[in-house]
Amino acid sequence: SVSLMNFLYLETRSFLRTAALRRRTLRACQVFFLPGLLWLSGSAALNTAVAAPDADTSAAIEYLIDTVSQSDMQFVRNFSKHDARRAAKHIRDKYDHFHDDIDSVEKFIELCASESLVTGRDYRVILPGGEERLSRDWMLDLLAEYRTEAGGPDS
Predict the structure, then answer these.
(1) Which tens digits make up the pLDDT trace of 117-141?
(2) Which of 17, 31, 72, 104 keeps 20 to 30 A from 59, CA to CA?
């Protein structure tokens, strides 16, 4: 009985790891869970203030996304490598989704360029020389350079 339970446990874990099931599960959550959650939150969502980025913040965010798209780095997301153009598209898609929740460049990096919302795994970048870094740290370094060059806040 114990060996049968171990076997079932291992088979179930293996099955749950398949990409197709993860996609179906995510789709099911999007279709069934999120609308219910939105319905339950109802008026609470209507009463919250929207914090959209100001012009300076938007300019810095656009700089970061453009820099990513024009770089020679590889973007590692959930163990899959992506080129810079695809990485920039993914970050832009998340930015479009979280736009109203972002009131600073650091918040943008946290929500859109640091980790997977699905798995919680950190995003990584592999630079042309082969150095691997956390995407968050790389983006914060780019932001520091941008602020130094632009003479903006926190420079």
Answers:
(1) 888 999 999 999 999 999 999 999 9
(2) 72
